Amino acid sequence: MKFMLTTSRGIEDLAKKEVEMLLGSAGLKGKVEEKPFDVEGRILTEVEKAYYSDDKGKKREFEIASFLNENSKLLHRVILHISSTKISNLEKGKALQEIYNFVLNSPIEKYIKVSETFAVRGFRKGEHEFTSIDIAKTVGSAIYDKLSKLGTPRVNLDHPTVIFRAEIINDVFFLGIDTTGDSSLHKRPWRVYDHPAHLKASIANAMIELAGLDGGSIVDPMCGSGTILIELALRGYEGRIIGIEKYKKHLKGAKMNALAAGVIDRIKFIHGDATKLSQYLESVDFATSNLPYGLKIGRKSTIPTLYMKFFAELSEVLGKKGVFITTEKNAIEKAIDENGFKVIHHRLIGHGGLMVHCYVIK
Ligand SMILES: C[S@@+](CC[C@H](N)C(=O)[O-])C[C@H]1O[C@@H](n2cnc3c(N)ncnc32)[C@H](O)[C@@H]1O
């Protein structure tokens, strides 16, 4: 069985590692490939079907898709792969005709009974003359026509039993069954307070991985709605976890989120100012934050001073490592450098249509 897994651009290597670890922990054998067809934000895994015996000794299939949906921290979607190809001509009429023919020749009937309702969700990335709606319509009619040979197909766009996902990324077409459903896995059920600039939970987990935590104390000095810390607590982290936030409204939201996640007792939340960090903490092993960019919150001109003051304070208390993300490359690099820190790792991560800079510092 093949699965196309989706995640944020720039963290495919970490997601691949996670998938390998999860498959290994379940005793499953398989290959995991990051960026198949050079497509960013995608991981392809081919896994042998697995079985177990139930209480009555009956052989049952181990549901790999459910297992990944339930346990992954870094993935956005788990899509059962049906077929994929390169589109030879991207001119609108020709591309859509090619997609229609390709889907008509794909083994759709292996994945859906005619009695089941279905919908197609289209997705597109790259330069195209057609829209994701065009893709969904074309694929929908090919599936309909194919199933018509077996009975009367049933389309239900709002509450389908089976969701097909049809993606075109540049010239690669991919068709699968979306086992995750319409809500991406990065939208966590604990998020009862929606911070206007919250971080995707998948990226928060990537930052946690990059920090290489060793059980020491950790602070998010501008924690917003608490995403990184809540995700860390949910992983069962045993070290001290501290969150600081300047605005009461967000701090209250972070507490509400932590309560919903069942980890309120694991995080110490402080109403405070990150530029006065040493007033709240004598020392801390790790620091991590999704720093304010000035795009969504506050004024951009205040960012360089804020970063400079914050990193000066951080240099007083940080023992081990820090992991930060921001769009403000110049401001953070200046603040890191002038306060005696060294960048030990840098990468770009896709977040909300932007590529943000992620730094691990010492
Ligand atoms: C990009 S948001 C963080 C979002 C957070 N990662 C989340 O997922 O909700 C940056 C946060 O920094 C807070 N902030 C800005 N200046 C601050 C300061 N001097 N001290 C503490 N927090 C500050 C903002 O109120 C905002 O909530």
TrEMBL record:
Question: PROSITE patterns per the record?
Answer: THUMP (PS51165), UPF0020 (PS01261)
The record's section on InterPro entries has: RlmKL-like_Mtase, RlmKL-like_Mtase_CS, SAM-dependent_MTases_sf, THUMP_dom, Trm14-like
Where primarily located? cytoplasm
The source organism is Thermococcus sibiricus
What protein name applies here? Putative N6-adenine-specific DNA methylase
SUPFAM superfamilies per UniProt: S-adenosyl-L-methionine-dependent methyltransferases, THUMP domain-like
For the THUMP domain, which residue ranges apply?
Answer: 69-179
BP-aspect Gene Ontology terms? tRNA methylation
Q: Where in the cell is it found?
A: Cytoplasm
* Assigned keywords, A-Z: Cytoplasm, Methyltransferase, RNA-binding, S-adenosyl-L-methionine, Transferase, tRNA processing
GO cellular component entries: cytoplasm
| CDD domains, per the entry | AdoMet_MTases (cd02440), THUMP_AdoMetMT (cd11715)
Q: Which Pfam families match?
A: THUMP, UPF0020
Q: Name one GO molecular function term.
A: RNA binding
